[in-house]
Amino acid sequence: MHSKLLHGEYENPLQFCDDAWLMFDNVWRYNTKSMKIYKMCQRLAKLFVESINPVLQSLGYCCADRYAYFPKVFVCCRIRQFCEIRCGANYYSYKNPEPSRLNLSNNQYRFCFVCFNSIQSESIFVGDDPTQTLVEIPKNLFLSAINDVLEPEIMVDCIVCKRRWHQVCALHCDQIWPDGFICNTCVREYNLPRKENCHKAENLPATDLSSQLESRVNKFLLDKNCHEGRVTIRVLHSGDKMCHVNPKSKRYFSNQVANDGFPYRTKTIFAFQEIDGAEVAFFGMYVQEYDEHCPAPNTRRVYISIFDTVRFFRPNLYRQDVYHEILIGYLDYVKQRGYMYAHMWACPAIENYDYIFFRHPSEQRLPKVKRLQNWCKKMLDRAMEEHVAIDYKGDFWSTTIEATIKELDQQDEDSDHPIESEVSNKRKCANADEKKNLKRMKTQEELAKSQMPPCTDLKSKIFSTMEKTKEAFFVICLHNPIATSPPAVNDTDVPIECDLMDTRDAFLSFSCDRNLEFSSLRRAKFSTMAFLSEIHASKTENPTYNCNNCRQQCGVHYHCTRCEDFDLCEKCFNIEPKHEHKMECSVPCIVDVNQDDKCNSLNSI
After folding, report:
1. For the chain: N or C, fewer Cβ within 10 A?
2. Is the Repressor keyword given for this protein (predicted)?
3. In angstroms, what CA-CA distances link 14 with 68, 69, 163, 375?
């Protein structure tokens, strides 16, 4: 390296950095972690980055850090197992030489260590679709591997000066800037115009719900004299679904369960804050709303299915308060719409398990169960002080019902065996009168059981379990149940179709496939920009127009002939003073006749 510097063999500073990292890698590769030279090299690498980063940044580069993503979690290919192959785990891999084969189109197939060794035969049947004919592959074609391969971050080159940047450092997305990346140095030195990023959360259509939550949070921050980045809240998905009852629950509660299930509307709510000029998603929540048309017992109830956070909100002093404001604001919104109850589950995340955001910051501690329960109680106490909630108490989750039913069914199967099978050898030697008494007791138990409702045993078991865990589940009373139910308020927000945000699994899979991590503020900025760009791109297929004033989606709109991407709805267009430029009225050329028929039929009722 010294010789190359003296002879001027390095064409750019990054080549020198590459040689430095090669030296560090060789030390770490050929020495164990417990050795002194290994630890000294770690300290030297840290000192190297701290020393050279300011030099590189002064030369127009981003940094000298060598960023890499953790190994992805793979899914075992064994049929109906779905085991996870996590970071550092051993597994067996088969590289497919013919991806064109029927039902074997992937390039690689992986089996976890346990599943592979549990198969006793000399071959394994593999396929993309388990319902179709599987392909037989000899086990000796599978190679042993460890899931420890780090994937380096993508680098992008400036199209003007050819300086190389990390894509995450550059905050460059090809979907937003298809012409290529231009570094800040070239923008400044050559006075080059850079297209503004229009794929922001604030440019997504606002709804009544998002506007109410956003106003509440920003008012709270303003009252606290907090002038950090403004918070933007958007409903990213809103659609109607059907909740189908599990078969075992339906069998036990046949008279109390609707045959067709329970219709509800699901909504995905995200909160963003602008930090250092870039939007960062810091809060996500999925909710289910069962309105007055839903059959009992789900009528007029909402379920906060899941919410997740990353600790990037500024200032940190009000981070927890902002979370509370969003949740209380949502409870207030559904209360105004006539909902009677809200349900919430206070369960902390499991280690290395993501709810909504992919890879949380390592310094973000996982709350213990008791701490999270107290956090929820504090939020609900505030809701009661503001008269949003009347009271709250414990509840329980439906999967426990299924597990309890399964246990009861197993007990019923065991009880079908003759009574003598349950008696020990000593009892078999007892007198005949005692045997007759046992049989008589058995007959009485069966008679009593036949006269009891089928759900009596189930209820007693569930109530017993609920008593132990009721602190983790909350039923929030929004209106007085004794008083007359308030009139239902129709949901004025139009459905928002977005497959990416439909479920948390869809969003997590998308984030995992594209390495959209929230493990650091640096990566959270890029990940937020990337998934917002994907949402905006999905809406271009069915273009919609949002008013630049009220942010509401509008059909008939007025478009400015001079400003770039400036539209007003009919209501805002008529507000004085009017826009300074000429505006042209535009009416959508595509009319959804079915939707109009629905509106007319509703108005005629």
Report:
1. C
2. no
3. 17, 20, 9, 48
In angstroms, the CA 269 to CA 212 distance is 12
H helix or E strand, kind and range, residue 415: helix 398-415
Tens of pLDDT, residues 84-131: 899 899 999 999 998 888 888 888 999 999 999 999 999 999 988 888
Q: How many CB atoms lie within 10 A of CB 432?
A: 7
Q: Which runs of E-coded beta strand occur in 319-472?
A: 341-345, 391-394
At residue 600, the pLDDT reads 33
Positive or negative: CA dihedral 457, 458, 464, 467: negative
Look at residue 420 in the predicted model and tell me its pLDDT: 40
Q: In this model, does residue 540 exceed pLDDT 80? A: no
Cis peptide before 297 (omega within 30 of 0): yes
Distance CA 340, CA 481 (A): 7
Q: What is the pLDDT of residues 344-356, one digit of tens each?
A: 988 887 877 899 9
Whose tokens are 């894509």? That residue is 167
- For the record, the structure tokens of 374 come out as 């107290």
Lowest mean pLDDT: which of 134-148, 387-401, 402-416, 446-460? 446-460
Greater confidence (462 vs 436) lies with 462
Report how far residue 246's alpha carbon sits from residue 38's, in angstroms, rounded to the nearest whole number: 56
3-state secondary structure of 16: helix
d(CA 180, CA 150): 26
Strands 301-309 and 341-345, by their bridges, are parallel
Confidence of residue 83 (pLDDT cuts 50, 70, 90): confident
pLDDT digits (tens, 9 = 90+) for 25-46: 999 999 999 999 999 999 999 9
Confidence grade of residue 481 (pLDDT, cut at 50, 70, 90): confident
Among residues 568, 593, 597, which one has the least CA distance to residue 583? 568
The CATH 1.20.920.10 domain(s) of the chain lie at: 2-66
- Residue range(s) of every CATH 3.30.40.10 domain in the chain: 151-189
- What pLDDT sits at residue 139? 94
C-alpha–C-alpha distance, residues 412 and 445, integer Å: 12
122 φ/ψ angles, rounded to the nearest 5 degrees? -85, 0
Q: What is the structure's pLDDT at 445?
A: 43
DSSP annotation of 481? S
| 510-597: CATH superfamily | Zinc finger, ZZ-type (3.30.60.90)
* Sign of the Cα pseudo-torsion (201, 204, 209, 214, in order): positive
Nearest to 273 by CA among 215, 337, 202: 202
The SS3 call for residue 224 is coil
Reported as a single tens digit per residue, the pLDDT across 228-283 is 889 999 999 999 999 887 776 666 666 665 567 889 999 999 999 999 999 999 99
Q: Alpha helix locations (H) across 139-246?
A: 167-170, 184-189, 208-223
- CATH topology classification for 151-189: Herpes Virus-1 (3.30.40)
In which residue ranges of the chain is CATH 3.30.60.90 found? 510-597
Structural element, H or E, at residue 457: helix 456-469
Q: What is the CA radius of gyration of the chain?
A: 31
CB atoms within 10 A of CB 529: 25
